[in-house]
Every structure is written in structure tokens, then in C-alpha cells.
Amino acid sequence: MTFRKVPPGPRRLQSWLPLLAVALLAACSGPFPQSTLIPKGDFATMVDEVFMTTVKWAAVVFILVEGALLYAIWKFRGRPGDAEPEQTHGNAVVEVVWTIIPAAILAFIAVPTVRTIFRTSEIPAGAMEVEVIGHQWWWEFRYPEQKIVTANEMVVAAGRPVVVKIRTADVLHAYWVPQFAAKRDAFPQKYTTFYFTTDSLGAFTGQCAEFCGVQHGRMGSLVIVKPPAEFDQWVATQQVGSPLVDRGVVAVDTTTPADPAAAQAKAERDSVIARGQRAFMAGGCIGCHAMAGTPTAGLTGLAGPNLSHVGSRMRLAAGILTNTPENLALWLKDPQAIKQGSLMHLPRPLTDDEISALVAYLRAHQ
Ligand code: CUA
User: Fold this and answer.
1) How far is the CA of 289 from the centre of ligand 1 (A)?
2) What is the pTM of this model?
3) CA proximity to 316, closest of 362, 257, 348
4) Nearest CA to ligand 1 atom 1
5) What is the DSSP-derived secondary structure letter of residue 320?
6) What pLDDT digit, counting tens, does each position of 171-196 carry?
7) How far, CA to CA in Å, does 333 sit from each of 312, 318, 330, 349?
């Protein structure tokens, strides 16, 4: 077989140019949920200031150097019949000048950079601690003071400083929420830390930033910033059935409300919980997940996320799916179809009855 080499003619390039332009411009359309250029907290703002300082100096250097270059090209351009230009070798004055100028520019950049490195290493007194543990492929968040364990969604209070301590339970990961702080690697035997304070309410996405296996690209997380009062309420809810509070034991309410409608609602809820709990045990979920009301309620360090409040989370499977009943059912039916390689393996396929019982049960765990 022979191949004929076809050089890309100007026609061909021209036909590709509009497409290239569209592709380039599409990158400018936003929104930019993970842009470090839109800082949302004090740490990220300080880093952004250093970045912008550097960019401004670089722009000045670029304009001066390129300007001088273009001027020289134009001014000293060759003309037909020109004699050989004068040849020079070495010029001590010029060499000293072009060594001193970059050194001075570097000094101008170094001062704010080093100052920011020190400022971002000072953890504010009274900061709330959150331990971040990387797993293949999800994030665990533990709040030692509040005695809470949750997964994939770090909830914090606006205006209150947070210190994040990061480690991994398996391979190396890196925790990164671009709008709050620089990325930090997750090591097995030591903590890496950073802190941030933010006044921006809402949910902000983060991404694992160290290649950690087949689902590295789908190891997302959220930082959810609530007003302080709402945050305190969230803490109180999450403490009920937390493995760090009374080993997850929750008092079971065996009373029957006097009001018939309330009594029926409670009976229905109890039946959902009972059916779901049976499916949770029989389906093998209990092998990897801590769950209030089951024998694993008080355990930490299991292979999968704590599910005692899974119904209150925004997303499923480390940010891949919105937490809706339909998506939860899809996930339970075939987790490997959604997240191939995930450690979520079902010992046997769940029946449709089990899936619907589990969906109701898990959604009831708000
Ligand atoms: Cu975890 Cu990449």
C-alpha cells in the first residue's frame, strides 16, 4: 500500500479557521464554577492578588521587550545594496544592565509572594477544623469538634474561619476547591492543611487534582456555605445518629401520636424504615456503609461513605449525579455502569422491590 502525502493547502487551513475560532471563543462563555480567577474567600483573594501583581509586571516586560524588538526590526531592516553591518562582540554595560533589570523585577515580585506565603500559613485562632480524607473515589469530611462525619459535601458557616486538614485512606489524592484555596496533596501518614474564610453563600465545586486511578476525573466535591444560624441547625441535625455521638445510637420513638393522621404518617414512615433496613442488610450495603439504626451506626473507617444523612446531600457518587430518587435508583441498580471501577460492588443484583425500599429508606435519612 502506498500513501500520498497531501500538504495542507491554504484553502484547507482557511476552512478550519472559523471552527478553531468558535472553539476558542466557546472557552470564554462561562460560567466558570472552578475558576481561580474568581476568588470567593480570603485565602484565594490573597493568592489572586499575587497572581495579578505578577501578571501586571509580566505585561510591562512583554510590552517593553516586544516593543523594542519590533522597533529594532523596523529601524534596522536590511535594504537591497546595504553593506555588511558592523559586527560587535560583547558589551559589558549592556550585559550588566540586562542582568540588573530582571533581578530588580524578580525582587518586586518576590516581596509580595513571600509575604503571601507567610500570611496564608497563619491559621486564624478559633478556626473550625474539618478533616478531609481522600478515598478512591470520594471525599470524607469529619468535624472533630462538632462530632460529624459526612461525605463529598463540606458544609461551612459564612464568616467563620475553617482549617482544613487533609490526608488519604488509600492512594495519593489532592483536595482542591479552586475558588477557596490552593490545591493540597493528600498523603497517607501526614496532614496537609490550609484555611479559608468566606462570606459567599452557595455551593462551590471542587475536584481531585492528583491522578488517583480510573475515576480520578470524577472525584468531585462541594463546599456549601450557609449563614451561621443555618449552619448550626445543620450541625444539630447531622449529630443525630453520627458515629461520633454515642456510637450512632439513636433513641427509637415507639409512641403512637394521638392524632390519627399523624399516627398514620408515623406508621408509614416506620414501615419504610423497616423495609429499607431489611434491604440494607440483605443487599450487602451494611458491609461498607455506616448507617444510623443498624449495627454499623457507630463505625468510622469503612470502605464507603456514612449514609446516616445521605438524603440531605445535593449530589450522589462524588458529584456525578444530582440526589434525586430516580438517580439513586439508577445508582443502586448498577453502580459500575455509572462509575466504572468504583468500589461500590453489589454482592448480587438488587431486586426492584429492594431498590424502591432502599430509595425510600435512604431519602428518609435527611
Ligand atoms: Cu482522587 Cu484523583
Assistant:
1) 21
2) 0.81
3) 362
4) 173
5) T
6) 999 999 988 887 899 999 899 998 99
7) 21, 17, 5, 7
